[in-house]
Amino acid sequence: MGELAKEILPVNIEDELKQSYLDYAMSVIVGRALPDARDGLKPVHRRVLYAMSELGNDWNKPYKKSARVVGDVIGKYHPHGDTAVYDTIVRMAQDFSLRYLLVDGQGNFGSVDGDNAAAMRYTEVRMTKLAHELLADLDKETVDWVPNYDGTEQIPAVMPTKVPNLLINGSSGIAVGMATNIPPHNLSEVIDGCLALMDNAELTVDDLMQYIPGPDFPTAGIINGRAGIIEAYRTGRGRIYVRARVEVEDIDKAGNRQQLVITELPYQLNKARLIEKIAELVKEKKIEGITELRDESDKDGMRVVIELRRGEVPDVVLNNLYAQTQMQSVFGINVVALVDGQPKIMNLKDMLEVFIRHRREVVTRRTVYELRKARERGHILEGQAVALSNIDPVIELIKASPTPAEAKERLIATAWESSAVEAMVERAGADSCRPEGLDAQFGLRDGKYYLSPEQAQAILELRLHRLTGLEHEKLLAEYQEILNLIGELIRILTNPERLMEVIREELEKVKAEFGDKRRTEIVASRLDLTIADLITEEERVVTISHGGYAKSQPLAAYEAQRRGGKGKSATGVKDEDYVEHLLVANSHATLLLFSSKGKVYWLRTFEIPEASRAARGRPLVNLLPLDEGERITAMLQIDLEALQQSAGADEDLDDEGVVIEGEATEVVEAEEVEEVEGETPELVAEPTGAYIFMATAFGTVKKTPLVQFSRPRSAGLIALKLEEGDTLIAAAITDGAKEVMLFSDAGKVLRFAESKVRTMGRTARGVRGMRLGKDQQLISMLIPEPGAQILTASERGFGKRTALGKFPRRGRGGQGVIAMVTSERNGKLVGAIQVQDGEEIMLISDQGTLVRTRVDEVSSSGRNTQGVTLIKLAKDETLVGLERVQEPTVVEEDELVEGEEGAEVAESADAPAADAEEGSEE
């Protein structure tokens, strides 16, 4: 017991745990999970291939049972479970797992559907021809050897591979505290990159990407976007998005029904599970438009068919599949491999340099080995050539010797005539041909040749048929070849350029034999799906309430009604809130939202949440960075992508948009414009372009190039500078040669040429547009279109149509003419829009009531009239806005509501006032 106690060493348990965990971690990192950067193999793969090589299980030999290989691997080199070893062999034989197979399998080795391989007693394997190249020259002392787990066998520490296996087949594994995930690449591209780097060691990662554009997966697919590839190649870490390849086919000849056909999948995606997932999404109605799903894959290739409902847009369904299934998956690149026995994060250039450095070492060591063997063989041939040139004395000496040992001693002690080899040795260089360590007493000396013990033994072992003249010539020819080989091997070792030429030749040979075309397509696109890709394009009604709530609804949700109808509630608002702005916009459009403080913000229509009629929507402060007291006063629809393309082509762009000369920093008073009775002033058009024309409540207007609003800022931008108390009330897109109509709440309108307002920068204040009376404000601004009719509406729900020609042109800055009578019955003017026959309009009350009616049902009258009932309002309800619907849906004729006859009477009562309109313009 006392002896046993002496073997117990007291240690701190914390220190012991730390050390033991560190030992375990390093064992897993170096011995299991991470590949060697030189050959791209983990220990288990290396041991499997070496075991197959030792079994003679090469590519040109018969198959052997997998169980035989597994047994040898476990018994000699890899003391772990047979399942793990067999799974390794299976994966090296699966054409959907490895880009370039290392094991040639015969039997069932699983499928892309996740089916398991057959048991190892049924399947058969052998190395592929490419795997043979990984082990080429293994017997020429090209790599170091290490003992196996019990010290009874020697195994290579690394393979002398001619193939850049780390890149072409990739690797994945989880160690302790680190992991690796290296994608496969195309062999031809990788070798091209190696050759380019050998030619110019100063190449950068970006330069190398001209040869190696990205990963090349065995299952093909599409890599969507290059940013992740660039990041991974530069830093060793990155994320790439891999999509399934999908074709759209017509089901019927008319092309009314289509089907999606999946022909390629992202790497390591289980096809059966994908189909189950799609079926589940269809069942749960998370993806609409799919009527049938089936797998038509066979020996000729993959084919998963997804039939779509008639009229369904294939791109919308496909984008939803990308978003909700693994048809688009993320491959996280994490290039961690062992370099000099230590884990290292590597970029693209690092991986190529390690492989080239390994090849340089392997070829050097192989050359040294071959040079030693060539010298040894040359030394033997040299002795035999000397013996054959002195054949008679040699035979006499051997015959006279009583024993072979004495004959050997006599051969060594005799000085032989050397004419047969002397000239050849001198040409090749006597020192370069001598084996290392050969004693100086042997060989040519003083015109004679002295045989070494090895040469003497070889002479004694010569067969009699070698004594013939023909054999003598063959021996001398072989000796000359050996001398030439020795010279070439020495050149390789002494000339670095020649060494690199040898490496280049071998790489080019590998490329010629095993290179193939790229399978995975790389598209220069966005890295991931945008929300817009998942949204069907449609017209939507966007509303913003006075209290700052926004929402959107499909335009089709509203049915057309007859004029004077009670309408449907467009939004649920609190008693003190009401809808203030309405816009019909495409769901993919970008909205410019102008605020009361003169700032502009950007939102996509689909970013405004959809809500029911009864819902209030979402507070704008949750969508935009609005300041306290700031509210949205105008909305405008633009095509941002087209605008950005235009901005990119502009040579005068600055950090905010374009440089505009002569920005106005103060409000400029109106210029006097004369107008001859009965004549129309000629409009002076500016250069064609797109502009934002804005108007404020104080009557100020400004024209700014639209391109200055092409660069969205999350915090918004200043659209124009405002006087204290002023607000922006309207904005429109123009081309610089339009007309402008300004309407005040006093019922006045001013029509003038847009060209009378010069172009100004984004932060300019603008110029005087309309002179207003005390307590009066602008409420609307229009850019009239030829042949349009102007529909005006008052706060009590009355309105009318008036032909554009009824509104005379005036100079900018005037008071304007009457647009609509603002009597006690009508109240103030609240809005004006331009309409065409056949269109529809929407009217919004401060209590959230919405009426949609046809323009044709609103009577047409002169300027100086009161109008007819557009919407029946409650006693305490007022009209706050109206909007034109561009494309009316199918009209549903509702019954006329009571009170419509009264509206017609009011229409008749307006007639006398219409006759007197010309006398009361000002």
TrEMBL record:
Keywords: ATP-binding, Cytoplasm, DNA-binding, Isomerase, Nucleotide-binding, Topoisomerase. One of its GO terms (molecular function) is DNA binding. Signal peptide: none annotated. The keyword ATP-binding applies. Residues 892-904 have a biased composition (Acidic residues). A motif (GyrA-box) lies at residues 561-567. Residues 34-534 form the Topo IIA-type catalytic domain. CDD domains: TOP4c (cd00187). Residues 905-914 have a biased composition (Low complexity). Its EC number is 5.6.2.2. The active site is at residue 122. It comes from the Bacteria. InterPro entries: GyrA, GyrA/parC_rep, Gyrase/topoIV_suA_C, Topo_IIA-like_dom_sf, Topo_IIA_A/C_ab, Topo_IIA_A_a_sf, Topo_IIA_dom_A, Type_II_DNA_Topoisomerases. Residues 892-922 are annotated as: Disordered. GO terms for biological process: DNA topological change; DNA-templated DNA replication. Belongs to the type II topoisomerase GyrA/ParC subunit family. A type II topoisomerase that negatively supercoils closed circular double-stranded (ds) DNA in an ATP-dependent manner to modulate DNA topology and maintain chromosomes in an underwound state. Negative supercoiling favors strand separation, and DNA replication, transcription, recombination and repair, all of which involve strand separation. Also able to catalyze the interconversion of other topological isomers of dsDNA rings, including catenanes and knotted rings. Type II topoisomerases break and join 2 DNA strands simultaneously in an ATP-dependent manner. Few gyrases are as efficient as E.coli at forming negative supercoils. Not all organisms have 2 type II topoisomerases; in organisms with a single type II topoisomerase this enzyme also has to decatenate newly replicated chromosomes. Heterotetramer, composed of two GyrA and two GyrB chains. In the heterotetramer, GyrA contains the active site tyrosine that forms a transient covalent intermediate with DNA, while GyrB binds cofactors and catalyzes ATP hydrolysis. This is DNA gyrase subunit A.
